[in-house]
Amino acid sequence: MATLRRRRAVLVLTLLLTALAGVYGSGAVSRLTNGGYAASTGNLRIAQDTLDETFGVSKPHLLFVLTAREGADTPAVAEAGKAFTERIRLWDGVASADSYWTTGDSSLRAKDGSSAVVAVRLKGDDEDVQRTAKRLVPRLRGERPPFHVDVTGEAEANAELQKQSDEDLVQAELVAAPLILLVLLLVFRTAAGALLPFLVGVIGVALTLAILRLVTEFTHVSVFAMNLTTALGLGLAVDYSLLLLMRFREETGKGLDPHAAAVATIRTAGRTVFFSSLTVALCLSALLIFPLYFLRSLAYAAVPAVLIVGVAAVVVLPAALLAFGRWLDAGDITPLLRRVRRAPAGEPGPPFWERAAERVSRRPLLVALPVVILLVALGLPFSQAKFGLTDERVLPVSAEAHSTARVVERDYAAGALNPVHVVLRDAPRGEREAYFREVSRIDGVAYVDTELGAYAGGSRVRDAALPAPAYVRGEVSRLLVVPRDNAFSQRAEQIVHRLRSQPAPGQVFVAGDAALFADTKSVIAERLPYALGVIVLLMFLLLYLFTGSLVVPATAIVFNTLSLTASFGAMVYVFQDGHLKWLVGEFTSTGYLDVTVPVLMFCAAFGLSMDYEVFLMSRIREHYAIHRDNRRAVIEGVGRTGPIITAAAVLIGGVLIALAGSAISVLKLLGLGMFLAVLVDAVLIRGVLVPALMVVMGRANWWAPGPLRRLHARFGITEDA
């Protein structure tokens, strides 16, 4: 093959490309943004635009909490509060700044009068907001007599998330890199054998950074893209290198010279690696179906990264094997391991996974049934899953944005600071009060603030707190619906749906965090069947091309779904319900899961699961094609791929569990969830359920109608050398 004949040129070119990618990609981190977790419908966008353009109202990006020893109402403190507010208002990039002292709005004053809030809106898009916040906040936080100033709000939380994410990424790499090297050394028994996959991983990470940097030129990219694509890039690079190296050693063990062994490796395992990377990429591409830039940006970055890692493993590693093959067996640690284990040298018995497959094949149903029961039991908590959106609670409690938000929640009428905004158009004035009373009767509503006053339970409880123009402009009026629960609760979501569906004297448009949450859930629920359909269809087609069977793809999809449901159930038990926190360290349990994370986990973990399925099925199909003995093919296929899948799962699991050590709870959830999915898939699904079912099914495993058998014979993908 051309890449093998020109292996030195390939390696030199790869070295230069990696160096250039590293230099170019080094600027990726500073260009990442935090956000894009929510989607909005036309109803919400109209409400937001009307509130902003007509009333100058929108959710503040920053909340400065000013605490004074003398209290918020003394003349000196009030004067200082007005001056502080005016100072912020004049800052470049600030759209507005309002406080209790400048508006008289009691919702901006603590219940005990010890502090007050300055609510700040910033100009521009997400990047402009972040730049302004990074300049503004350090100048104003801390001791500012007569106040002590603390900060929270979306912009501050995003800034702290980005900083914490960068720190966690470095920590994860420091943990994962030595673990990967150690496992590779134990698998290959030589330093050179261990370093080659690691070097492919470095190439993958460098190119991933360059891809992220390039993508940021065209669209927003989430700050979490760095963590996910680095974990996938490094993990898959090592996985694919492992498969290729094991096949290369197998071919040389048959007596082939290194060049012939490398050619055979590319034609067999190389083909599997390429289509395995295509499998993961196709699963991740389903994220593009969702109109949330958090999910889409992960797909923009991860899909090309995974494909490049697959190509690099197939092209670079075989070239390196021939260039450095003479040193591949240098420094063999096998004698050392034998001394440590005090194991005598001699003829080895059957490998562990071959023995395990042999035992499973004797009593397949008896072995498989307890595993199925266990997975179903693990998945049961997922039936009680609740969903919300990301807020400052994903940060550790020690983070200022988190701790200050809890102070606001405790000391202020928090619902009044984050109400449901209702815009009412073309409503006759004489019919508005009856509508206000009806809205105040909705279950979960604490009270409604309107142009006529506040209403609760159908009755007016006080006159209007703000002048009439604050609520009415021409034929457009607004009202603030203050929920009893937080914005991401089920009752707040139901309030939004009720406001949009119940009869009203005019056109009704609803905004606020509760509306954003309701819209996001609706959009994800609407698009999810399409994403699942794309993944299932593509995976079915790919496995058919590998096996020529319709049975194997169907059972693989069922088993993968069972495995992922078990992982989701564990996530509900730990992160939603707050059990077993010691597994991942301290975090704040919000009582729900972020609505986007299960979608991301499903696409990524399903891809990894199908990755291992491709590894296993390609070898079983290869052996079955040789001797047509189904049971023997299953045992041999598991025996050949079991060590590879186990080592690959340990390696990528090490990267993911390092991610679970993050101080950010969303990354903890993603890391632990995917780690459990990979572990369950590698051990219970590929090691027990798949071989058990295939032994029971016998020749029926390979069933397909005649036309499809002939189609596979012509276009199918196999590892036949």
3D architecture notes:
With 721 residues, the chain is of the alpha+beta class. The protein has 24 helices and 14 strands. Mean pLDDT is 85; it is low at 343-349.
How would you concisely characterize the structure shown here?
The protein has 721 residues and is of the alpha+beta class. It contains 24 helices and 14 strands.
Question: Notable features of this structure?
Answer:
7-stranded antiparallel beta sheet, elongated, 5-stranded antiparallel beta sheet, single chain, 721 residues, alpha+beta, 24 helices
Please give the structural blueprint.
Blueprint: H1 2-5, H2 7-25, H3 42-55, E1 62-68, H4 75-89, E2 94-99, H5 100-103, E3 115-122, H6 126-140, E4 142-144, E5 147-152, H7 154-188, H8 191-215, H9 224-253, H10 258-285, H11 293-324, H12 334-341, H13 352-362, H14 364-379, E6 387-388, H15 400-411, H16 414-417, E7 420-425, H17 429-440, E8 445-449, E9 454-456, E10 459-462, E11 472-473, E12 476-483, H18 490-501, E13 507-511, H19 513-547, H20 551-576, E14 593-594, H21 597-627, H22 630-660, H23 665-697, H24 706-715
User: How much of the sequence is in beta strands?
Assistant: 5-15%
Number of helices: 24
Biggest β-sheet strands, sense, barrel: 7 strands, antiparallel
Our Rg estimate from Cα atoms comes to 30 Å
Span between termini: 14 Å
Secondary-structure-derived class: alpha+beta
Assign an overall shape. elongated
- List unreliable stretches of 5+ residues: 343-349
- Calculate the mean pLDDT score and round it: 85
Number of strands: 14
Helix content: 55-70%
